[in-house]
Specification:
By secondary structure, this protein is of the alpha/beta class. The chain has eight helices and ten strands. The protein has a single domain, classed as TIM Barrel (Alpha-Beta Barrel), CATH 3.20.20. The strands form two sheets. Strands 1, 4, 5, 6, 7, 8, 9 and 10 form an eight-stranded parallel beta sheet that branches. Bound molecules: zinc ion. Zinc ion (ZN) binds next to strand 5.
């Protein structure tokens, strides 16, 4: 099967934290995509194409945003609208309208406002896919089956109740997948994203790898990714990260 880069963003701000991309850099990245003849789509749109054609859409990237920071509304929407791109935003249902205090925030990020339900409703009406990212952003490997069900299925139900729309997609907090959480996610959602650093191809739909934009900070790297010239680099970074995870 052909491949698709599913890009991961978190917060658009100028703090320089590991989860931050500067708004101007994001706007430049969207222009780079458009100038290269690529479109930015939601995961839902990419999945529909894969289901209909047994292949990912050509000359597209999927744009995903984890956690639901309020700066998506202020900083990402204008750039997306300018290019007629869409995206998927994975919101933590228990933190909508709150702040990112589910864990100590990464260095330099500090406490930030999260999206509110009215903003999310407006985004959804504008064609942004709203996905689920659990209720409380817990490490799913540490939970009982009942707790995991509540975190995963509960977030879907809450978002659907608020928006009156089906929620199809899920992102695992921290990218951590356990056999139990995978089983629940397969039952509750059409597809789900991990943080495994790779372009997506024929992977199972509930374990889709993504490319975290933290690793693509240099402007030319996005162009290289689009030309599929970055696969070796991603492999090296993926293996380095796995080695670190094993050691700690
Ligand atoms: Zn997250």
């Amino acid at each position: 099967m052909n491949s698709l880069a599913i890009l991961t963003y978190h917060s658009l701000d100028t703090s320089g934290s590991v989860v931050s991309v500067a708004p101007q850099a994001f706007a430049d990245q969207m222009s780079t995509l458009a100038e290269a003849g690529f479109c930015g789509v939601s995961l839902r749109e990419a999945l529909s194409h894969r289901e209909a054609h047994a292949a990912w859409p050509e000359r597209c990237v999927a744009l995903t945003f984890d956690d639901g920071f309020a700066n998506f509304y202020e900083e990402a929407m204008p750039a997306l609208v300018r290019h007629s791109f869409t995206a998927t935003v994975f919101v933590i249902s228990g933190y909508v309208g709150g702040r990112n205090d589910w864990a100590p925030p990464p260095a330099r990020l500090g406490l930030r406002e999260m999206l509110t339900w009215p903003q999310i409703a407006e985004m959804s009406a504008a064609g942004i896919e709203i996905g689920a990212h659990t209720r409380n952003h817990k490490d799913l490997r540490q939970l009982s089956t009942a707790e995991a069900q509540e975190e995963i299925g509960g977030s879907r139900v809450e978002i659907e109740d608020r928006l009156g729309q089906p929620v199809d997609s899920f992102a695992y907090p921290f990218g951590y997948v356990s056999p139990t959480s995978l089983e629940i996610v397969q039952r509750e959602f059409r597809a789900a994203c991990t943080t495994v650093l790779r372009r997506a191809s024929a992977e199972p739909l509930h374990e889709l790898p993504r490319v975290d934009m933290y690793y693509l900070r240099a402007a030319r790297q996005l162009s290289q990714l689009l030309e599929a010239r970055l696969d070796r680099y991603l492999t090296v970074r993926r293996l380095a990260r796995m080695a670190r995870a094993t050691l700690t």
